[in-house]
Amino acid sequence: MTNRKIIEVLYQISELLELKNENKFKIRAYVKLSQFLSGYEHELGDIYKKDGIKGLVEVPNLGEGIAGKIAELIDTGRLKYLDELKSSLPPGVEKFLEIPGMGPKTAFFVADTLKVKTVEELEEALKEHKLKDLKGFGEKTEEKILKGIEIHKRGEKRKLLGYAYPIAEAMIKELKARHKIEKIEAAGSLRRMKETVGDIDILVSSDDKSVMDTFCSLKDVSAVIAKGETKSSIYTVYGMQADLRLVDTKSYGAALQYFTGCKEHNVFIREISVKAGLKLNEYGLYKAKTGKLIAGETEADIYRELGLQYIPPELREGSDEIKMAAENKIPVLVELKDIKGDLHCHSNYSDGYSSIDIMAMAAVKCGYEYISITDHSQSLKVARGLTPEALLKQEKEIDALNEISTGFKIFKSSEVDILEDGSLDYPESVLQKMDMVIGSVHSHFNMTREEMTKRLLRAMDNKYLTIIGHISGRIINHRDPYELDYEEVFKKAVKTGTVIEINANPERLDLIDIRVKEAVRMGVKLCIGTDSHAAEDLGHMRYGIGNARRGWATRADILNTMTLKQMTKWMENKKK
Ligand code: DGT
Ligand code: CA
Ligand code: CA
Ligand code: ZN
Q: I want to staple 383 with a disulfide (CB 3.0 to 4.6 A). Which of 339, 343, 376, 534 is the partner?
């Protein structure tokens, strides 16, 4: 039983309790614990195994009552309490709760009055406008729920990159630990760092054939779909399928190329080989006439023999990457090791879980030279936004920390709300004291494209605004982006020197890849920030890097590849 699975159960309980109108404090205990666990570095399973319930109770936010339930979960894989909660609800309600925008009350109401039990039945009833005629519900509500259903269906199929990536990593680690392995890595959309992935594809080369047995008996397996000598598919407890393919070392590069995709890229690549009198498949690259093998062991060999520059996986999306590679125009893309600091981090002053010094220490561990503390501004009450007085206190704490450190700096900043009219949520007297300022939209999402564009353009007129945070407002699988004229915004960003953020949080990954490409083309300066709410989240930087690379960004395009010295100077100039 992993923390991830436990979190799922805790959330479910909290939602069911809410539905039953239970005690608010009781509900909050579950929510708080699951939020805490999502950033917790230790596995509760390990703690329980070592120290029993006593160990669990020592975990922050974890009380005795819940500890007993978690112990039951770990021991049996089930929880009686949850089963009872579920069976006390009208059928269907539990499913409806998974629909974005559907609160417990509505879920209860539709199940009760429309007498529908599945999401499909609900969808049908809505399309027949059965809800519209009822008291208090209009066409708007119908549309909203239908939209939620659509997003929900998408989300059921594809998982976030940040969800799937650690799962794939752990599987690979386990296989490596138990077998002598030549080469192993994830292929498919995961290797291309696509924002969502359909399934996990792993490729391995090893003389030890029993690696397949291990794969099919991993602790994460909920069902074995197919098991063979060279290919197996499993279904995992995380709601995703994973495939393992065992290939010959001689063919490893060819197989990796083939199974990395995407399909369109592969089709184009094969066309090129045919034109060159060659034949490419997952075993190798051959002379068409004689069948002689000319490449196969590495991907680099294959691209080279096709007369192409090496194409990094993140670019293989079947757009213009092959044409560019033929002309030797693939740039050196930004890499994780180029990043010198994180510019978007929350602390426990607002809605983060870690203190400033813990965040800073984690940043040092990442090899960074600086971190920017960007807590929320005063209007964002739900995220405990800081009053100017609280900011002063934070400023003092940061000054004190900076005084005792050398070669590492904490920048004083804030993620300031861009208010409805495009003004910023602190007066200039407060903003001017900060090293930098992120401006983000956290409210009034329902504006027209013109209004929202105007709002952002106006924010960029504020000379203290340094960066626009998570520009589209989307939450993948939960909230669609608002409408925005990106060309106008990018133009203004170039003119005012405003930086646009690539938000590395797996739920946001915002700017999206094709817009990163557009921004790079227009000369917009970008930065990558994790939007961390706990020290562990700093590790999300890799997803931001993946996204930046998918948008063809180089080191020079990304602000936070600057050293501390360069960055300090850049900020001073920006404020002038
Ligand atoms: P996903 O899993 O939906 O996020 O996307 P992928 O790209 O990982 O797709 P998947 O898992 O179906 O297959 C992995 C790769 O294998 C895919 O990117 C390209 C290759 N592949 C799979 N089926 C075909 C095919 O029918 N034709 C070609 N050319 N390549 C294929
Ligand atoms: Ca896949
Ligand atoms: Ca697959
Ligand atoms: Zn934000």
A: 376
